[in-house]
Every structure is written in C-alpha cells, then in structure tokens.
Amino acid sequence: MREVSGLAVNTAEELKNKAGIYLIGSDLQGLTSPLDSHVLAAAHCVWEKEVQKFGPWRRHICRFSSGDLSTMWRADGYSGMSTVFIVGRTTSSMDVIRKLLSENLLPSWGSVLAVEQSRGRGRRFRQWISHLGNIYGSWYWSGAALPCSSGASWAGLTPLLAAESLVACLKSKGLSAQIKWPNDIIIDNRKVCGVLVEDCGIDQIIGVGLNLVHAPTDCHLRKDFTLSAGCAEAEGFDKLTPLSFWMEWVDCSRKRIREMISCLSASDFVKMLERHLVWHGKKVLVQTTQEKEFSARIVGLAENGGLRLCRSGKEKIICSGTTIPDF
What is the pLDDT of residues 144-166, one digit of tens each? Predict the structure, then answer.
C-alpha cells in the first residue's frame, strides 16, 4: 500500500479481502461508464434513495493487477459481509464480473450491479431490455466455496438454486412469486425476473434481471414471447430498491444455498422446489427445439433439474424448452 495525493492505494488483493459496497469510478478500459455517488443518485430516484441510505461514500484508490489505477467509492453505511461493485452503463454485468475476476479483485460470493446495460442477455443470447431503476446484477459462485456442488447429483441445478433463493426473498416481501421452469420468476402470470447461468471454469456466474420499477410492453418483447412482463411496483410494492434488495438477497442466500447443498440431496431439493413451481398439475403447451409444440401436464421436477410432464398418459422429461398455459 502507498499513497496517491494523500490517499492510500490498495492493491486488488487488499480490496478483495475487504467486504463492502463499492462504486467503480473508472471506465475499466472502456467497459463501463465512471460512477460516483452524485452520478448514481441522478440516474433514477430509486438510486437516489440508495445513495442516501448507504452513505457517506469514502474515496479509495485501487491498483488493478494490470497496473491501472481506479477510484473506488466505498459505502460507510454498510457493515455486512458481502462485496458488491456497482458500475454505470456497461454492456452486461456478467462482462464486468469476468473483468474483475481477471484483475483478481472479486472474492468468492462477490457480485456486480449495473445501473444500465447496453447488451443485457438472456437465454440463447436473447436481448434483455434494461431500463433504469431495475436490477441488473451478476453473482459469482466459486466452485471451491460450494460444498458438494461438484457432485454429479447437483449438476444442472444451479439456475433452480438461484431461482429458489430469489423466490424466497421476494415472498418475504409479500410478493406471490413463483418459478416458471427453467429460469424465470413470475408474479400473477407476468414475468418479473430472469436468471441466466454462465460457466467460468469450475465456477459459475449467476445473472439476474429483475423488474422493480419498469416492465417492457408487449410490443417491445420478441415476437415469440410466451408471457407479458411485469414489475414489483405494478404489484403495489413500490418500496423495493435495487441495492437494498440485492444486498438482502446475497447476504441471506449465501448461507441458505450452502446449507441446502450440504444438508439436502438433489432429489430432496427438487421436491421442496416443486411447491414454488407455477402451473404444477396443470396442462401447458410445451415448446422445444427437438419437436413440434405439444400439450402435456406438469407433474414436477426431475432430479437433474428437468421438467417432468405427463403426455398421453406417459411421463416425459425435458431438459430445455418453454411452457405456455393451456387452460
């Protein structure tokens, strides 16, 4: 550690071991727009509330592994054990996660929140519309930090683990959230959240897009969309703000997820998860890339995370695809 203009310079390794909420005040080699508390507060009224809640913001200087220096603004009003880096406009919070990992700055269970995304993505690299005021975050799950997560019985269950913990957090706020297999969260038959998992070696990045204050209209969705979009504010929950909800989720869910993996079998977990499954026991239209659309009844989840269906009296398991109500 040394000083620049009277400020101590922390190495990436030093900052990595210091939990907190950080605003990144540099462009990360063109990946992000610089951010400070004033710029963040001006982005949207929900972010203005967060700046006031978690401030004051103390300036730090970080030297990345590449040698570049960056200003970081750390929230004095947060004393939890998690680390989140907040960036301004960027391509995708998942891209920022990968950049911070390459700079040896992101700890296990560290995360990134983007104020705005220009190329947010969903499954099959579909565009994720990213309006100001919503949550666009990515969470780093280190393979070394998840006990038993490398076991074959848990392979493929990461999206459902993330979705289950999100539903639990939303329900604690009074929202009647359910999981639409394989990776969406819906409220009153409207999609409010999508979960995307990308592998990073033995580690995984959990991408989350959650509509808090704005939902795209049908005309802005892709032509083959299956559900209209919704948001928490439209459901009467206008007090949810992006940083507060995100920190509550990661703080509580880190322990919850580790305990589930350690204490439950994969079979027990999917059975528990079925109570959150939308349209469980009902007929749906099923769309896959392997065959034409067909009608079936949802009967549950398979141990590998696939969807169990009853089609013409016989059980069928699909591992990819989507469902539409048929009732």
Answer: 777 544 455 787 888 999 999 99
Flag whether pLDDT at 280 surpasses 70.
yes
Query: What confidence score (pLDDT) does residue 235 get?
Result: 79
Asked: is 2-276 a CATH 3.40.50.150 domain? The reply is no
CATH architecture, range 283-325: Roll (2.30)
- Cα–Cα–Cα angle for 32, 37, 38, nearest 5°? 100
Q: Are 35 and 88 in contact (CB under 8 A)?
A: yes
**Alpha carbons 6 and 180: distance in angstroms, whole number:** 53
The pair of structure tokens assigned to 77 is 């009003």
Rounded to whole angstroms, how far apart are CA atoms 183 and 191? 11
Tokens encoding 156: 């493929």
Residue 78 DSSP one-character state: -
Q: Residue 208 forms beta bridges with which residues?
A: 137, 195
Rounded-to-integer distance, Cα 12 and Cα 119, Å: 27
The label of the residue with tokens 């054990």 reads: 81
| Token pair belonging to 309 | 């269906």
Measured from the Cβ of residue 131, the count of other Cβ atoms closer than 10 Å reads 17
**Where residue 218 falls among pLDDT bands split at 50, 70, 90?**
low
**Domain range list for the chain:** 2-276, 283-325
Distance separating alpha carbons of residues 42 and 83, to the nearest angstrom: 23
The rounded radius of gyration (Å) of the Cα atoms in the chain is: 20
How much is the pTM? 0.91
Q: Which bin fits 305, alpha (ψ -120 to 50), beta or left (φ > 0)? A: left
